[in-house]
Structures are given as structure tokens and as C-alpha cells.
Amino acid sequence: MERRIAAFFAVALAATSAHAQTAPPPCLLGGSFDAAVAALADGGWTVLTPGMPVPADAAERLGWGLVATYVAADTGGASLAELHDLQRRAVAGLARKVDTETSRARVAIREGAALTISRTTTLPGRVEQVCRIALDGLAARAYPEGFGPVEASRIGDAEVIVQPLDPDTLSLLTERPVAVATLIETRTILTEDEAR
């Protein structure tokens, strides 16, 4: 595992996206789900056990990652605040999700950040790992709609998608405080052997 983490840092430093370097190593590597969760805890994240309530500030952060998907496609006529309320509740539901043989998920938090990590067997012999990370900070620039352009890259076997947010604009549009300035999603396809 230490060799894999060292390899991650070598690749991350060479990556073109500075934001991609903030994705925790367990979000970019294979290995067992339990090992990934343990590595998050070792890296300073508090991993919520299934059934634990998600702190309100973590649900606020993680909800924006799900809202960004709707805003890019079709909001269905819902306001930004309504979409965010819906997605905050979805995050709470994820934390209550029961592990199965084919699907596991956890919510992890630390100061100024929150993430979800999930593993799903999508086809026989194929496991998909997805991490969604929301990081507080200052906007790199102002975005009139609150969402900046999406940047996609690869770090090793992981696809990394980074989207900057403008917390000030989102606060004005939703009439609530917003601290999230960066959304990161990592997606890694693993074989069953790589996921052990």
C-alpha cells in the first residue's frame, strides 16, 4: 500500500490540474474498500459509519456536487435553492445506505471539506469507484451562474473532474451561506482483483 501511495504522489505532482492534487490517494487507487476507508481515516478524515447522521455542514458541501450535475443538464424548473435542498437530503440518505455485496458507500469529513466514496459492481468482474469531494475556499474568479468550467484529466487509472464554484454568487442566488469553492469527482474502474 505504501508503494501505491508513493506512486500516487509521483503521478499527482506531474498532473496538469493543481486541483487534482487535492483528491485523497484512496480516491485514486485500487485495493479493498476497507483499506480505502482506513487510508482516509489515516489521512485525517473522519469516516462516518453507516447509519450515523451527516453533519449539516457536510451535507451542505456535498449537496453542491450533485446540484452541479443538474445545472449542467436540466433543472426541471426547480430553483437552485430547491435543487440544493433536495441534494442535501440525498447525501443524508447515502449515509444511511446499507452495504451489500455489490455496493458500499461512506461519507467522510474534515475541516473545510467533505467527501463520499462509493464502490459498485456494475458488471460481473467490473467495479466502479467514485469519490465526490467538496472543498471550501475562495473563488478563483467570479462566475455569474455560480459554476465555473469543468476540467477533466487523468491521474493514473482515475478520471478526475474538477469544477470551480463561486461561493459568493451561489450565496446570493440561494440566499444562504455557501463556502464550497471546488468540486472534485474521481472515477476509477477496477477489476474484481484490483478491488480486493
How would you describe this structure to a colleague?
The chain is α+β, with helices and mostly antiparallel strands. The protein has one domain (2-191). It has helices at residues 2-14, 33-42, 56-72, 80-96, 167-174, and strands at residues 46-47, 103-110, 113-123, 126-136, 151-155, 158-164, 180-191. A 7-stranded antiparallel β-sheet has the order 1-2-3-4-7-6-5, sandwiched between helices. A hairpin with a 2-residue loop joins strand 5 (151-155) and strand 6. The chain is globular, with a radius of gyration of 16 Å. The two termini are 12 Å apart. The model is unreliable at 1-17 (pLDDT under 50).
Structural domain tally: 1
- Helices and strands, in order, run as HHEHHEEEEEHE
The radius of gyration is 16 Å
Lateral arrangement of strands in the main beta sheet: 1-2-3-4-7-6-5
Gap between N and C termini: 12 Å
Number-wise, the strands total 7
Mean pLDDT: 87
Describe the sheet with the most strands: 7 strands, antiparallel
Which percent bin holds the helix content? 25-40%
- As a percent range, the share of strand residues is 25-35%
| Number of contiguous helices | 5
What class would the helix/strand composition place it in? alpha+beta
Low-pLDDT runs of 5+ residues are 1-17
- Principal-axis shape equals globular
